[in-house]
Amino acid sequence: MAISNGVQKIKEKLSIVDVISSYIKLDRAGINLKAKCPFHNEKTPSFFVSPARGSYYCFGCGASGDIFTFVEEFEGLDFKGALKLLADRAGVELEVYSRGRKEDEGEKEKLYRIMEEATRFFENNLEKNAEAREYLKSRGLTEKTVKDFRIGFAILDWRNLYDYLKSKNFSDKEIEQAGLAKRPDQESGKPEKAMYDRFRGRIIFPISDSSGRVIAFSGRLLESVPTTVGRPTDSVGPKYLNSPDTPIFKKSSILYGLDKAKQAIRKNDFSIIVEGQFDLILSHQTGFRNTVATSGTALADSDRSPDDIANNLGIISHLSPNIVFVFDGDKAGLAASERATPIGLALFKDMNVKAAMMPIGADPADLISTKGVDAWREVIRNAKHIIEFLVDRYITDVENIDSLKIQLNIEKKIIPYLELIQNPIKKSHFISMIANKSGMKEEDIREILNRNAKANYQNNNYPPENTKSNRFRKDYILRKLLGIILWQKTLPETSSETSIDFNDILKEIADILNITPEEVLDPVSRKRRGDKTIDDDADLIFEAEVFYGEGANVKKDADELLSNLREEYLKDELALKMRELNIAEEKGDKEKAMIIFQECQILNQKIQDIKNGRLK
After folding, report:
1. Does residue 474 sit in the same domain as residue 583?
2. Are 270 and 191 contained in the same domain?
């Protein structure tokens, strides 16, 4: 089925309400439905879904679109990833996936295909290797679990996978770019022989994005690697080995197993974050399918990826406001808790973040294998709010500690995280708890908090609200508009699909961005400005063709996108002016503050005019 026909077929089978209600709770509001926006924090619902138009719009942050844009933004996927996810859900087979369409592939599509080919290769290897299968069985994994998680095996050979992928007509560049093979530090002088497999003698765990596309691998060295191929075990690297960062994989932004955990996180209304693959897999096997794993990598300190789309941490924060970190009961687990605590609090300020520590020397996989699911359930049940977890760790559980050491621990180890809690009732509760357990006075703790807050304010260490959300929204709108322009430029003047003057759109974008029309389209200029609007012009054209190639009202959509873009830039300008106003008021400069206040009023009126025009 052609892609454009497939999109229409998907929309016929999946309504906007079907899709969005599977992610967030919708309430009836007349002929529409409403909810708290999943793309920014808010207390009063401003996110509206229109069944009649098949679209959504948030009056708080400006997020809008159809089922495809919603899935892209919520799941952190590109358009083709969202297309695949919704096609699978609707039971619609798409030609681009069923036949390959290799001649139309961009860089990322080739990488997705090569990763899928490698996954099948590793799965076949596992079927042929009794020792690897026996090892997985000894760790408590059932055959069904092994198949569900597509676990494979890389034999101990230098070029086993490489030779296979070459037979499938993948180039050295593609194989290396996917992180599946590498070159030695010293070139042999024979480039065709220089490449060798990254993963050798390892159990292979495929890592997928939220739509289920394999994007990376994590390999665990088999306990007893067969040496019949004449390669010593010390030639294959560390016990655990992950794929390097690639154009489709950023290890700090990915949580292993999220593609399988999403529904359970929504259903159970909390997520569990563990450290290793076996921890996650056995947790799923025992029924805790709301578990995801960091796969031994450091968590990102942001809920968005370097491309400014929602990463896995951002996704789970949308799925449920409740999260439990589980740390191994050893030194590595303690170190992991120190790394994850500030991240958890910074990312999930309005969430209920808890932490649990395993018994000394144990990890979840060991506990489940030796003591069963009830012991694992007890660990989760006994999780504490992360502030209480810190207090117990740095104060209560420390023997023979003097009062000065306690106060220093509170000031350096706990209060920086307490500052991140925005709810005043919660903050007051934890101030009282810290005082009771440490012997410090509540007023002393509040004094430290106030002193730190004042220092941060004076140093301007505070961003305008929704900066990330607004930037992401601008990039998304620009991407859509650039796609329309680039697509229209490829069409002959006599084409029936040429329904707009793309030069007018180009000029208006240039006016909004305060640059020349030439700079709008120039890739070098876009990169210099820091725009994250494209991966490839061909991808933008592809997306525009899909949505507007069958008689869609391009002009209407383009006008709406331009309106949204102008609104986003006005919001940014208003945020900066508000910051200037705060600084002027802090310095007591009343005359300057009045001028800036009037400028803020003008900007706010322009924003309201755009919103009012949208409602007409």
Report:
1. yes
2. no
Could you give the CA distance from residue 108 to residue 213 in angstroms, rounded to a whole number?
A: 11
* Global pTM value: 0.71
* Residue carrying the six token digits 């007509």: 169
What is the crossing angle of helices 312-319 and 331-347, to 10°? 70
* pLDDT tens digit sequence for 5-62: 778 889 999 999 999 998 888 998 888 899 988 887 777 888 889 898 888 888 777 7
The rounded distance, in Å, linking the Cα atoms of 556 and 564 is 12
Query: At which of 220, 249, 278 does a domain end?
Result: 249
User: Which H or E element spans position 279?
Assistant: helix 277-285
Q: Characterize the bridge pairing of strands 271-274 and 291-293.
A: parallel
CATH of the domain at 290: 3.40.1360.10
For 68-112, what is each residue's pLDDT tens digit?
999 988 887 888 888 888 998 888 887 654 444 454 557 888 999
Report the pLDDT value the prediction gives residue 458, as an integer from 0 to 100.
46
Report d(CA 333, CA 206) in Å as an integer: 24
Nearest to 318 by CA among 35, 2, 37: 37
Residue with tokens 């655990």: 240
Please state, in angstroms and as integers, the Cα–Cα distance from residue 598 to each residue in 203, 545, 569, 576, following that order: 64, 44, 18, 14
Residue 15 included in any domain: yes
Among 1-15, 282-296, 361-375, where is mean pLDDT lowest?
1-15
